[in-house]
Every structure is written in C-alpha cells, then in structure tokens.
Design goal:
By secondary structure, chain A is α+β, with helices and mostly antiparallel strands. Chain A contains three helices and seven strands. Chain A starts with 11 loop residues before the first strand and ends with a strand. Chain B is an alpha+beta fold. Classes of the chains: A alpha+beta, B alpha+beta.
Chain lengths: 149, 92
C-alpha cells in the first residue's frame, strides 16, 4: 500500500489542492464495515461557466467560516449515516480561487444498495447547499463580480 | 473591553480584512455596530432602518453560536468575544 493511501480523510472544509476525489474514496474503502457496501456514490460540484441568471462566469472564489461550516458538515454526515443502508459518508468542501470546471465540493456515500446511496447523496447535496457557512463569488467576463446568496 | 470581529464574503471585501479587534466602552452589540458603521460602509447591508434592528437575513454569530435576537442593544458582549455577521450561505 502506498503511504498516501493510508491517510484518513475527515469531512470538512479544505483548501483547494489539499486532495481530490480518489483519496476520499480510498478513505471510505478503509471503513471497517465497507464489506457491507454494494456501491459507492460520488458527487463532484464544479465551476460552471454561467451564473444562475445566465451571465458568463470566468472564475470563482469560495470563502468559508471554517469552525461553523465544519460543525454543520459533521452534523449532516452524522444525520445521514443513520439512514437505512448507509455505511459511510464523506463531505468535503474546498475553498480558495477556482477556474472554470475545477472541483469545488465532493460528496461520497457508501451504501448497502444503490437506491439508498442515490437517495442519500441527493439529500447531502441539498443540505450542504443550505446549511454550511460557505459563500461563493462569481467573477464575470465583463470584469464585475458578485457574491451569490 | 476588547472583542474581535470575523469578516467573510462581502464583509471581507468591504473591510479588506479577515478579522479585526475593537475596543468597546459599552457591553452590547450596538456599541460595536456604531464603530463598524463609522469605519466601513456596512450599514446598508447590516441594518434594517425601518425596524431599527439588524436585518433579518443577517445571522449573528457570537463565539461560534448563532444568536436569534436582532436588537443589538439587547445582545450583551463580554471581553474576548468573537463576533461574525453572516449573509445567507451559497455552497458550491
């Protein structure tokens, strides 16, 4: 086993570039109960080239109140781990400056059966969008920028 | 009494800082707001002029705990407190 595969990933806020999706999947595969899982589901949020109002976006900044956001992320994970068939869940939100198509957020769910995983990963995304202390600023092609709320 | 204010998102852009310490004469949030409004153009974001209180969409966090009261004269502060004003979140 390579040394970087031994690192356990905790859910929370990290700086861009700290690690990627593969490391989170490897971490979840080291859960002692992983043999009960029949599927691993992943969601990756990336930077889109248009705002919700259709304005061209060229880059994005993510800011976070880490203490509060980490607390909310752990509450979301603990709540969803109690759902039927869920073996493990990791939620990682990155912060910093991002170009188009770069990864912003990862949700990884291991579940006994696929439908349980599809359901919980969808719930996790809806929850983090509303509950964690993270803000995004879109930088537009016309030179303006805007924090979205 | 010295308290520290944490700035995020718009507040970080407007102040140009991540955090800042203020010395307060009064032990309530109104005293801190008056200092903030004197120094920075934050009143239009934070203050509900019609109802004379902090705007409902602003979350007030003191020492990592949410405060539901919006009347700043009713919110007491202690030496060493950390305060943040948060706009609605927008995860990626």
């Amino acid at each position: 086993m390579k040394s970087n595969e031994k690192i356990q990933v905790k859910s929370g806020i990290y700086n861009k570039g700290d690690f990627g999706l593969e490391k989170i999947i490897n971490s979840i595969k080291r859960n002692p109960d992983i043999k009960k899982a029949g599927s691993i589901h992943t969601f990756t949020g990336i930077v889109r080239d248009t705002s919700i109002n259709g304005k061209p976006v060229i880059s994005m900044k993510i800011d976070a109140y880490e203490e509060l956001a980490n607390k909310s992320i752990n509450e979301i994970c603990e709540k969803l781990k109690k759902e039927n068939g869920i073996i493990d869940i990791k939620l990682v939100h990155l912060k910093g400056d991002f170009d188009l198509s770069e990864d912003l957020v990862y949700v990884v769910v291991a579940s006994a059966h696929r439908n349980e995983g599809f359901n919980v990963i969808s719930k996790a995304v809806e929850m983090y969008k509303k509950e964690i202390a993270v803000w995004k600023k879109e930088n537009f092609s016309d030179g303006t920028s805007e924090w979205t709320h | 009494m010295i308290v520290e204010v944490l700035y995020f998102a718009e507040f970080k852009d407007i102040t140009g800082k991540k955090k800042e310490k203020f010395e307060l004469k009064d032990n309530d949030l109104l005293g801190l707001l008056n200092l903030l409004f004197e120094k920075y153009n934050l009143k239009n974001i934070l203050w509900d002029d019609q109802n004379q209180k902090i705007h409902n969409l602003i979350s007030i966090i003191i020492n990592n705990q949410a405060i539901h009261e919006k009347d700043p004269s009713s919110i007491k502060l202690n030496d060493g407190d950390t305060i943040a004003f948060l706009l609605p979140v927008s995860g990626g």
